[in-house]
TrEMBL record:
Belongs to the UxaA family. This is Altronate dehydratase. One of its GO terms (biological process) is D-galacturonate catabolic process. Keywords: Lyase. Transmembrane segments: none annotated. PANTHER family: ALTRONATE DEHYDRATASE, ALTRONATE/GALACTARATE DEHYDRATASE.
Amino acid sequence: MTKALRVDPMDSVATLLTDAVAGDTVNIGDVGVVATAAIPYGHKIALRAVKRGDAVIKFGFPIGLASRAIAPGDHVHSDNLSTALLGELDYSYAPPDGRMPTPTQASVNSSFMGYRRPDGRVGTRNEIWVLPTVGCVARTAERIAARGNAAHAGKIDGVHAFAHPFGCSQLGDDLAATRRILAGLANNPNAGGVVIVGLGCESNQIDALLAEIPEQRRTLVRTLVAQHADDEVEEGVALVAELAARIVAPRERFGLDALTLGVKCGGSDGFSGLTANPLVGRMSDRVTAAGGKVILTEIPEIFGAEQMLMNRASDARVFEGIVSLVNGFKRYFTDHGEPVSENPSPGNIAGGITTLEEKSLGAVQKAGRARVVDVIGYAGRARHPGLTLLEGPGNDAVSSTALAAAGATAILFTTGRGTPLGFPVPTIKIASNSALAARKPGWIDFDAGRVLTEGFERAETALADMLCAVASGAETAAERNGEREIAIWKRGVTL
């Protein structure tokens, strides 16, 4: 029997849970529709006729316009559905209705074993991070970290270097953004100590970088200028040893109010907005209801769904911040001669997503129902309990690096296609479908496809348990695989 899932009673399409061939009767609850063509699972089938130019509805919202007439049972995809997205828009502010996620007994009782830092923040790891100021000493930083990790294994949670190619031949805001993102990483609570390795002649000078790091935090930072050292690797290893002796500490128990959670999706498919993203939204609600912080980014992947976030702005200032961020990012596209809807990716399309509106309506569900309390620019830092919107592109590595620089101590990363990539903080990879989870157990930590058989409540409990275990030290798949990368968003001129 072929089945499909309709999210909202107003929807004109449903998502297939299994493949269909022409002539199959597809059941949507008590309703049946006959497929007019072969349709892969995860793709959309029309439940009713849609005239050319009319909106196609999913999640209860338009996901684009029919580019030709659609009949019941048709495969709804790129050949008959197109985006309706435009450039910059005018928006109006409606104060939120006051409804917010309320603390449940589960969120109150949830806890993890973390590390308290001198400034009061809490890390989920006790590591030393080696950060190069410039690409010229990236391999030097990696050699220092490798030796330090071998020397101090078992005493701290690890020593890791984060290589990048930037820090020189950059100008103005572009250089400043590189400096701020590295300073944000140096300030992340998961790094008990930080060694900054400079070359000496680069644009990204160490003194200017240190000035971006909060003063109290600088007591845990050591610096090394390779051009001034007789043996830069030996000196770097000695600095790691000094920090390792200083930061050894036991874990302590904390509630979810001490957690800063980043939420991210990559390689979405037709199930992402039905299983994994709403499940992560429930985790976001748990954390914010307990008094913790949640950070949402990937601004181009809220185009078409931005009003949902604007309606949850805590006040007019935050609303204006969201408007400025969304329209500014659209301007970034149009200034470069690109349409704002140049998304979904080929992998998204193969997985059943057709338009950016559809992708965005699924993606924003990661934020749950919490009020948006702050809007911060790229390389900014989350400051307030609740949901923060962070400027950043959809690129997995760039946006996840920005989440870590903003203070995230764990990331929930949903995917319908899969990726081995890992980031500076522990990242739980959540498959939107069970087939991916079964095929790629070396990449995937959690199967959100179980939502379709078990329901959200059981899946939520299981994911919450995993989140607390990982925050307490359990390794993610990416950590086991040694997958840890950063990427910096370069937007300026290269000399």
